[in-house]
Structures are given as structure tokens and as C-alpha cells.
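pinned: reference chain
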Amino acid sequence: MAGRLSRGWSMAIASFTVLKQYPKLAILPAMSGAIFLLVAGAIVASLLLPQLGMAHNTTSSIWNWLGDGKSPSIWFYVAGFAVIFVMTAMAIFFNVAMIHCALRAHAGEAPSIRAGLAAAVSLLPQILGWALVTTTIGIVLNMITDALKDYLGFLGGLLGGLLELSWAVITYFVVPVLVTEKVGPVTAVKRSASILRSKWGESLAGEARIGLLGMLFLLLSALIFAIGAAMVFSKGAMAIAGLGVILMMLGVLAAIASLVIMQTLSTIFQSGVYIYATTGQVPPSLDRDLLEGAFQPKAKK
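pinned: its C-alpha cells
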């Protein structure tokens, strides 16, 4: 674990040199997160209001259309798939824009948020196609994992997790391929798998570990929030409760900042790995050992 955190820290520091030079890169993950929260909030509100007796008749009728309160109708699942698809498409849209900007940054060009968004708009058919594929596969894998858990218990959950990890690794380069080669989703998956297989073999053990570092920061943010909450609900003085509110706000802000920054750093590093994997060239801001260590090579026979 210590070794993984150390490598994740090195990857984050290397990517941070790019972010420090072009801080505007963090705007795109922030925009994606803000829109995601707005859409998710609207969906949650539309589901809760009918239960509270505060919804308009139209909203209530939609709620009844989705189910009778005892068992969901087929339209409930259709609506659920549609919501996941839209959320996924939005995330991919901003990720495409981010990859476009990160590739420009690695090339020594000043990235443009407007150009990144324009590139994402031009690739909208590919984005929607990939969103449909990854949403469908994700749901199917989740169903398989649940079925394996029911039949095999812990071992089934482990096997399902390995299937999901395999899919995540195989599709690691899909978005960079969409951005640079402008191909369809199926071709992009094949191309991603081909790049991975030719450069790193078929090992899954060494995927980039910036996300692990991000989890650590999120845990620290949660700890700050929990300490603040404990101070608020304690029977101490008003000053202590006020300090607790401040700590809770700091915990939330720290969590949001961690998500945005780690997503940005991860995408910067991913684009650098893609450049190295497809061209053999090491971006000036990154280190060859880090790029080669992003995935562990297949053992030589």
C-alpha cells in the first residue's frame, strides 16, 4: 500500500507541473461536477417531492407512471437507463474536452477551454455512441456481479470485481483514441486494447494510482467534516458549535477540491501515457519510469 501511494504521489506531482503551468485545465472537471450535481439534484427533487405531497399533478402522474409504489414498471428501468446514459454522456463530453486540452499542454501549446469544448461538440456522435456502449456494459457487468455474489458469495463478488477491473483497463485509452483518431466506440475499444497489449502486455496490476491518493484526501476531508459535526452536535458552547460549522464547510470544500484536482491530474497523466504508448515519446513534463510503470509489463518467458 505504501508503495502504491508513493507511486501515486509521484504521478500526481508530475502531472501537477502541467496543471501549475496551465491552471485553467481544472475548469473542465469543475464544470462537469457542477452540471452533474445540478442534474442529480433536479432528479432527486423530482423523485422526493411527490412523496412529500408537494409536487405538481404532472410530476405525480409521472411518478405513478414509473410504478404503483409496490413494484416498478418497465418504464422505471427505461428511465433509469436514460438517466445513467445522460450522466455518462456528460462526463465523457467534458473528459473529451479535458483530454484535448491536456494533449495540447503536453505538446507545449497553451490549451484553450473553448477549443476543448469545441472539440467535444465535434465528436458528439462518438461521445453518445461510447456513452451508450459503456452504460450498457456497465449495467450488464453489475448484473453479472450481483448474480455471482448470490451464487458464490465473496468469491463471486471478487470475480465480478475482476471483470469490472478488466473492462476498465481495456478501455483505459478509449477517450484519447476518440479525441485523436475520431473513430467509433467499437473501434476505439479495439484500439485501446491493442495499445495496452502491445505496450504493457495483459497485466492489470499496475494501473495508474492517482485515484488511490485521491481516496486518501477524501478520507481526510471526511474526517474534518466528522470532527466539525461532532462539535456542532455536542453540548458545548456556541463558539465550539460555530467552529464545528466552519470545519464542516471546510470538509465539504476540501472534498470537492480533491475530486476536481485529482480528476484533472489523472487526465493529464492519462494523456501523457497515451502519447508515450502510441509514439514512444516522453512528454517533457513527465518521467519515462512513471509512464512505463503506469501498467506493469507482462513477465518475459
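why pinned: The chain is about 80% helix and 0% strand. The CA atoms of residues 19 and 25 lie 7 Å apart.
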